[in-house]
Structures are given as structure tokens and as C-alpha cells.
Amino acid sequence: MKQVVQNYKSGELAVLDVPVPGCKPGGVLVRSAFSLISTGTELMKVSEAGMSMLGKARSRPDQVAKVMQSVATNGVPATYRKVIGKLDSYTPLGYSLCGVVEQVGAGIDDVKVGDLVACAGNEHALHAELNWVPKNLYAPVPDGLAPRHAAFGTVGSIAMQGVRQGESRLGEVALVIGLGLIGQLVVQLLAASGVRVVGVDPDPVRCELAERLGAAACGDPASAAVETAVAELTGGHGVDQVYLAAGGGSNQPVELAARLCRDRGRVVDIGKCRLDLPWNAYYEKELDVRFSRSYGPGRYDPSYELEGRDYPIGYVRWTERRNLACFLDLVARGSVDVEPLVSHVADFDDAVETYQRLKDGDLKAVAVLFRYPEQAGESEGVAATAVAVPAVNVKRGPVRAAKTPVRLAFVGAGNYATSMLLPHLAQRDGVELSTVVTTTALSAANAQRKFGFAEATTDLDAVLGDKSIDAVFVVTRHSSHAELTRRALLAGKTVFVEKPLALTEDELTGVLAAVEESGNDRLQVGFNRRFAPLLQEARKRFGARTGPANLRYLVNAGRLQHGSWYLQQGTEGSRFAGEGGHFIDTASWLLDADPVSVYAVATSGNDDLQVVLRYPDGSTATISYVTTGPAGFPKETLDLVADGKALRLDDFVRASLFVDGGVGRKRWVSSRLPKARDKGQNAELAAFIKAVRTGGPMPVPLQSLVATTTATLAVQTGLAAGALVTLAGAR
């Protein structure tokens, strides 16, 4: 088998062929699926190995003391040989992984061959294809938890033990200094416990990530913003706990901790930072300084770790293994989200190059995963998972043509509804805005005043029970779309729901179950771009094609403002889950087919995505969804190339068509639109109202809406699995 090793004397990193470990009693043999690089602990070890002998000595004074003791006992020559022998040997790297049980040792009855387990330990959860892991250093992975997420188990346990040492209580305020991998997890664990968190890190990207994952505020340690946030959250008293998750030789973290901690507060050291405590500051506040020992009770105890002797739960509630199992459960239930922390996934064979890139600073990362051969093979052509595209089989009930005027109800009246939909409907002939429903009375009253709704209410049931209402618009936050759509369909209404239709496969299944139960398939999702006049004309001029096409769609999505509900990924889904359906639908409409596979890769935090869609005739569409571009750059640019023709769309302002027959020859260029960009909302609404009024077909077939939604959801599935996702049953 292969294993990542390092020579501490020379600093050499290598992937070596080594013997497969035996499966001893009291443990299991685990074949790795994903292992996690700790960009703090492991890179510190890698960096130390590259130092001179003097540098190594300075960085490890504890080891120097042991050497001096050996010199006193055994003499210089014997000590020299011992030290050089130890330095000039290969040592392993890694301590956090997820894999499949391949063999079960004697005395093990809680797992079986084929089970997925998360493993811990710098001697047992190594970057290696196979590891023997004793009983108290593994935990079964809950159903539904992706292997790449379970690989975070050990570092999650480290963060959890630190939080336990802080004894945080509901309603308290905590300061987390250092927003690397451990710090980001501490932020989430505290937020999940009802603690308000302020984060500190000099890297603005890490600060932004922590805020997205639950921190109330974050900032540079040198800025006044952090002190201001602490003062506002604590009424000027200071934080209840400080968690030191920073490394390096600066004493700034412990000084900042003393300054911002309240009287008799707690300071917990989780990382390995300099602890030159300013005596006066700590004495005057009587601060309680605590250390967090790795994964929890049992660590460094051979009888616990190697011999499998557990501590009675009545005496030690949270051991290493119990912390590991608890963290896995939190991730499985969505209370902690590790996917935004994945900066890079590398094939195991590329381990040496990956470490070198991290060391040199070429790869900026919070967390990096190694993907092992079986997993890597899947991403190169064999699907890691297949997602079924639900078939729409409905015994359609009679379709009733609406009387004139068509009576509409709106559920939700937020920015999009009031700026992009209602202005097109308020003055449309043959349309009556009957009722607006919101959760707050004032927003309903405002919408009624601005757009002339006959009624404003907060009673959804009354609207769904009103037989005079022909169609319902669902324009609420993403997390409520599927349930509101389901209820409206069951009530017999024609439904227009803004994207996304659903955030999970279960939500989509629920909507289709309502269609089947009611016989009502009168549904439209707000995929408006296919209705844009400029894109309609460009597609018509491009004409039919005979061969496969290549489509490139660049979406310069931009950054969201702090506090935007789009950042609430735990409840509202990722940005791409909310918005990506627009671009997949546009690509599928241009290619006149539904995708059959999805492959996605992401940058740190999953904000910037590359999504590759494959279609039945071999066509491909690549959607680049980026949030880091300049604000002045166009939001959407699209290129479609096939059969010697190339269509270009420039942000719904201008389109052009290039054809063979001469260098640089242009066949058609649209005039620049005189008004604001028209992305098709008006034409989409006209088509929807016509379908409601006449009882004719909906503007977009329901199967297409389902296929687009399934493909959008498959992006997150593919990111979690690190591999291609096939869309089983796709047309």
C-alpha cells in the first residue's frame, strides 16, 4: 500500500510503498476514502523539517532538553547516534480520516466489514491507503453523512473539546482568536450552542467565512472593529470566554484575550501559540486560563487508546470517542457545516505536490482533503453516485380556463416581487391583483398600497381556500418554496414559484407527490432568462444544429452584503442552490435537452464554482459561478459554439453571431438595448398569464422544471462526494 511520509532530517516528503498493517485484536483495518490535512499542525511539522539543525532545536526546546538529559546519562557519542538515527527516519503524517472497514479484529462487535467509520490518531489515522485503528479511536459514520465530511471528525473533536473546556452557556459571548480550520469549527460549535461569537483573524477572507458560518462579527486584531463589536454585544463588560486557536510566535493573542475578556472570564488555549501571559492583566481580572488537550479525555492514555478500556460515562461524560461520535452527529444533522471549509481536494498520488504548494503559499487553504484511488476513479468517469430525475406521471384533472380578469394572489412581497414581478403585473390588462399574503401585517399593507391589491392579509389558508383566485405566486425565502408550492397545488391553484423550486430531493419529491395526488400539474418556476427577447432572437438566428455544442456561461455573481439572508446556508441553502437553476435552465433551453450528468468543483468556501453539465448528444455546458470578480464587470456572459457557428451574449445588452466563411466575419450583431437589461420577466409573466387564462400548456414543461431542479441539487451532491453525479432517468 501507499503512505505519505517525511524525513525529519532532510525535510523530504514522499509517498512510499509500505507493507499493509495487520488487523490486530481490539481494532479494525480501514481502507481510506478521504483523509484531512490539518493545515496548522501538519504544516508546522513540515516547515520544521525544512529547517537547519539549529532551527529545529530552537523550534523544539522540549526535545533539546531531552537530548541534554541523554548526554548527561549516556554521553555525547551515544546520544548523537540516537538523535541522528531518529531524525534520519521516515515518520508518518495525518491524523483525521474516513474510510471503510475492510477487516474486523477479535473483540470488535460494534462495526462490520463494509461499514463507514471516522478515525482519529496520529499513529492510526494516517495519510495511508490502509490503517489499523483501535476501538476507541474510531466511530461509525451516521447514515447520509458524506465520507469527505466525516473525514473532519478528529479536528472537529479537537474544536469540541476546546468548547467544552470553556464551559460556554446559552446567551454568553465568546471571542475566537484565529480563524483557521479549528477556529472556524469552534465558531460553529459555539453558535450552535446559543453563544454569540466574535472572531479575530488578519485574513479578511477567513473573517467573511466565519461570519457566514455563524459569527456575529469578525475583524483584524489590529482594528477597532473587534473591540467595538465586543463592547456592543457585552454592554462593555467583555466576553465570557476567549478561545486561542492561533499559532505562531506572536504574543498578541494572549494580550488581546486579557483586554477583551470580562472579569473572571475564561481563556482556553486550543492551538499552539505563545503564552507569555501579561501578569498584571491576568491577575487583575483573575482570568481562568485553561488548556484543551487534543480530542478529549483518553488522549495519550495507552490503556484507553490502545487497549480499548473505556472510561465510565458516569465519571467521564465526554471521551475522545464520544466527542468524535458527537461531532459526526452534529454534521449529519446540519448543525455544523464543514463543506464551506473545504478549500481543495487532491488525489492521494499528488500528496507531495499538495504539501509543497501549501508550504510555499501557492495553495491558500483552510482545509485540504486527500481523495484515495477508489474515490478518484469515480470522478474520472465512474459516477460516485446516481441521482434519479423523478418522472412526472400524473393523471391530469380537468383544466379550467380562467375568467377575465385573471385573479392573482401573492405569497410574499419582498424586493424581487416588488421590483421585478409586480410592476409588470400591476398595469397588465385582464389581470386583477386580488390578495397579498405576508408574515408581517405592515409589509402586506405596503404592497397593497403600492400595487393596488384588493386585500392584504397574513392568513394563507384563507387565500388557498378562496375559489375565486386563479393563480398563486410564491415569492418568499427559499426554504419555504417547496412547502408553499405543495399546499397551493393541493388547493387546485396554478402556481408560479420563484427559483428554487426545492432545496432538497425530499422537498422536490413532496412537490411531485402533491402533483400526483391532486392531478394538478399547473406549475411554473421563475426561470426567466429563456424568455429574454435578446436571447430569444439570438437563438433563432443561430438556427438548428447537427453536432454537439459547447456552451460557456460566466456568472459574475459578486459578493453579498453582510447580513443578507442569502448567507444563511443552514436554512436557505447555498447561493448556487438558490440561483443556479437560472443558468442550468438557460443552458438546457439553448441546447434543447436536459442534462444527464453533473460534475462540480469549488474554491474555498464553495462560493466560486465550476459546474460541467453533459447532455445526451455529447454537448457540454460549463457554468462558472464566481463571487470574487470586480463589480464593474458584466454579470452574465455566454458563448455557444457548434457547427462552425458561435453565439455570444453580453449581459443581456448585446448579442452577436459569428459563422465560418471568412476570418472574423460577423453574420449578425444586435443593436445595443436603449433601456435597462431585459432578462425576460415581462415575457415570462405574459406567457404564464396566457396559460392561466386559456387553460393551455404551461410555458415550460414540468419535466424540464424537475430536471433543472434535480441538476441544481446534484451540484451540492457532487461537491460532497468529490465526483461526477449521473442523473438517472434523464431524457
UniProtKB/TrEMBL annotation:
Annotated Alcohol dehydrogenase-like C-terminal domain residues: 182-300
Keywords for this protein: Metal-binding, Oxidoreductase, Zinc
Similarity remark: Belongs to the zinc-containing alcohol dehydrogenase family.
Descriptive protein name: Oxidoreductase
Cofactor: Zn(2+)
Domain GFO/IDH/MocA-like oxidoreductase, first and last residues per copy: 561-631
Transmembrane segments: none
Keyword Zinc included in the entry's annotation: yes
One of the Pfam families matching this protein, by short name: GFO_IDH_MocA_C3
GO MF terms held by the record: metal ion binding; nucleotide binding; oxidoreductase activity
Gfo/Idh/MocA-like oxidoreductase N-terminal domain location: 407-527
Cross-referenced PANTHER family: D-GULOSIDE 3-DEHYDROGENASE, NAD-DEPENDENT ALCOHOL DEHYDROGENASE
InterPro entries, per the entry: ADH-like_C (IPR013149), Gfo/Idh/MocA-like_OxRdtase_N (IPR000683), GFO_IDH_MocA-like_dom (IPR055170), GroES-like_sf (IPR011032), NAD(P)-bd_dom_sf (IPR036291)
Lineage: Bacteria, Bacillati, Actinomycetota, Actinomycetes, Kitasatosporales
